[in-house]
Fold this protein.
Amino acid sequence: MTASVHIVGPQFSTFVRSVQLCCEEKGIPYTLGAEVDGRPVTLHSPEHYALHPFGKIPILLHGERRLIETPSICRYLDAAFDGPALQPADPWARARVDQWTGLLAGYVDQALVRRYLLEFVFPQGEGGAVREEAVTAAQPEVARVLGLLEGQLAGGAYLVGDAFSIADAIAAPMLDYLVGLPAAEAFLAETPELVAYVERLRARPAAGRVLVAPELG
């Protein structure tokens, strides 16, 4: 099996960045881009659906292996490669990391990214305008989710205790984008633990190589 991996997907994707962070934290060599075996893969093309039956990204290529879904990819990288552990050895602590990984990849992603952040990045209104009604509709759940994260962070430096984990790798890209959004300032004024957490994440060397300005074309 090769010592490096390839991540299929664009670098601005939050989930692609989560997989990058795991590779960077563990020192796993990787390449990144919308190619497989040197051939471009167009989003939602037959070639894409052959790799992921629901047409999502990222997709991890490791030798002849193909793996989909960010939590599964991150757990595989942690188990299959040397480097700092991204999951606790203690079963209860590991279960809590898994719990937060699932919550982040599902509910938190939907609230913060799909229903809120993407409206600013790829606005769907007439003439490419932000749909203010969509933003207003999303705001209550954004506030609720950030409140949940704020409460969780009161117990340690990271989402589960004082060690960086897969859960933090999934949280970091979406929160990094949110903190950089002027429209989110009112939310962030109510979540000082969360803002401090994002600064801790950004200060990590791995994050400095991943959480960069996106190239949106």
